[in-house]
Amino acid sequence: MGIQNVKELGINGYETEDARSFRESGFFNNLVYPHQLEKLSFIHCYALLSASVKAFPATLKKLKLERTSLSWSYLDIIAELPNLEVLKLIEDGCCGEEWHPNVRGFTRLKILLIQRCFLEYWKSDR
User: Fold this and answer.
1) Whole-number pLDDT of residue 87
2) Secondary structure (DSSP) of 71-107
3) What is the pTM of this model?
4) What pairs with residue 3 in β-bridges?
5) Are 49 and 71 in contact, with CB atoms under 8 Å apart?
6) Which Gene3D superfamilies match (predicted)?
7) In terms of Cα–Cα distance, which of 75, 30, 76, 79 is closest to 55?
8) With contact defined as beta carbons under 8 Å apart, do 53 and 29 qualify?
9) With the CA atoms of 60, 65, 70 and 76 taken in that order, what torsion angle do they form, in degrees rounded to the nearest 10?
10) Are the CB atoms for 63 and 38 separated by under 8 Å?
11) Residues whose CB falls within 8 Å of the CB of residue 123, separated by 6 or more in sequence, listed in order
């Protein structure tokens, strides 16, 4: 709650003993409190991120996930962020070979970057 006025936040961490205690502190579940947060990036936050996706503030305009290995299914939650304009998924930002996007989500998205996430494209005959 001490960072309520922050507009940009970047978190870079590995799954170490310090990172586990950081996760257990509940920090990631409290990301909803920075009421002015517009830009958020996670790098190397493998197991740290999945619990916090539901707590992302509605004010987010830019989100970058790099080497987080978040399941593609969590993007349905991210898609509901009402002000999200930029989403960057870089080098295993999400993991898995398929993503079935929610067609009603990402209402304000202007830029979607998917880079080195090993997502396969296939066109259905339907």
Assistant:
1) 96
2) EGGGHHHHTT-TT--EEEEESSSEESS-----TT--T
3) 0.79
4) none
5) no
6) Ribonuclease Inhibitor
7) 30
8) no
9) 30
10) no
11) none
